[in-house]
User: Fold this.
Amino acid sequence: MSTEITTTTESADQAAFELVQRQAKMLSSSTLVPKAFQDNMANCAIGLNIAKRLGADPFMVLQNIDIIHGRPSFRASFLIAMVNASGRFSPLQFQQTKTGGGGCFAYATDKESGDKIEG
Assistant:
């Protein structure tokens, strides 16, 4: 019986891997994705993995990732949208710091605890 379960799991894993490859191939052949993903199935597959872990639309994730020194970095507008869409917090708001330099911080209220979260 354990051989059957192992074989079924391996088959499901193989099918999932093949699906990701097909999706990555399709995305990498599109001119609608950023240059870092065009003709690069590996980058697209990694982007698909990130989208799956975030529960976000793969195309939206690829559109909002910039590769900086080999590391994926999300655009601020995407991060703001993810926080706002999570439903865990009030909409993000921004306040300028009183000190010079033009800095600001973001804040929201945790809907469960009512605590103000800032950073």
Remarks:
- The first strand starts at residue 65 and ends at 68.
- The chain has a mean pLDDT of 91.
- Residues 2-28 form the longest helix (27 residues).
